[in-house]
Design brief:
The protein is of the alpha/beta class. It has helices spanning about 10-20, 30-50, 55-65, 85-90, 105-110, 155-165, 180-205, 210-220, 225-230, and strands spanning about 75-80, 100-105, 120-125, 140-145, 165-175, 235-245, 250-255. It has one domain (about 5-255): 3-Layer(aba) Sandwich (Rossmann fold). The structure holds S-adenosylmethionine.
Length: about 260
């Protein structure tokens, strides 16, 4: 349920909390878990609307980059799975005969995604990305779409994924990024910082969720810096490519 804001003071406090969370303050974990639980019923609609549907092709690209065809019967982790779009995309791939563990700590997000994908292939698990209830080396690949930026503790989150992956298994990160071409960058930042929070706020009814989004992207490492963080966490052969003028980026690494 979306919490009611009662006046300018509480609105100010809410904005300050969102800004602190976006900057990685200790409040981040609680803010993120509560905020996604609040917006869960409108999350899919807003995704389609605010990205003009491009997010679907980004998720398809992420699933393709996972290279699951190397082991179609394997066990794959969809980290920060939200409403299960990536899990469903992977589980619905022709020839996929494995399992997808869909982990997220906001239970209402997982519940909103119920029924997506073929029956029996997706296993939603309410779990924190920093303490996954999975044995070491038990997964044949992992993806995280628009999630790792929200995890309070990037290095810990990356190391936890490395822990659960089998050696040689791929890890794919799909995340927002900022276009480098100046004109595209300026137009995009205007949309991201001014239009998106307005539409997102109106439709979700949440006072800060769509202000937190651009702020959290601004605090997240740039593309090459993220690749370096992946290497530091135990991934090798790390590569990345920009998607749609650099609005998003796809990073791929292999567990050493
Ligand atoms: C922007 S949504 C992305 C959902 C989905 N992957 C998608 O592509 O639409 C981010 C998700 O990350 C989850 N999340 C953030 N921090 C987490 C953590 N520490 N542990 C588990 N889930 C987390 C949130 O609950 C939320 O559902």
């Amino acid at each position: 349920m979306v919490r009611a804001e009662t006046g300018p003071l509480s609105a100010h406090a809410g904005a300050a909390e969102a800004a602190a969370a976006a900057a990685g303050a200790p409040v981040k974990r609680a803010y993120v878990q509560r905020m996604f639980s609040d917006i869960a019923p409108r999350y899919d609609l807003l995704n389609r609307l605010l990205s003009l549907g491009i997010d679907r092709s980004w998720r398809r690209a992420a699933v393709h980059a996972l290279g699951w065809t190397r082991k179609p019967t394997g066990r794959y982790l969809d980290l920060c799975a939200g409403t299960l779009d990536v899990s469903a995309q992977l589980a619905s791939e022709p020839g996929f005969a494995g399992r997808v563990v869909a982990a997220d700590f906001a239970e209402p997000m997982l519940r909103s995604g119920r029924g997506k994908g073929p029956a029996g292939r997706i296993e939603p698990v309410v779990a924190d990305a920093l303490a996954l209830p999975l044995a070491s080396r038990s997964c044949d690949g992992a993806l995280v779409a628009f999630g790792i930026r929200n995890v309070a503790g990037l290095g810990e989150g990356l190391r936890e994924v490395a822990r659960v992956l089998a050696p040689g298994a791929r890890f794919v990160i799909l995340e927002f990024s900022t276009p480098s071409v100046p004109l595209v960058r300026a137009g995009y930042l205007f949309y991201f910082r001014h239009i998106l929070p307005l539409i997102g706020g109106l439709i979700s009814g949440h006072p800060t969720a769509y202000k937190y989004l651009p702020e959290s992207v601004a605090h997240f490492p740039e593309r090459e810096a993220l690749a370096e963080r992946m290497r530091l966490a135990g991934f090798t052969n790390v590569t990345w490519r920009a998607l749609t003028f650099g609005i998003a980026a796809l990073h791929v690494g292999e567990k050493e």
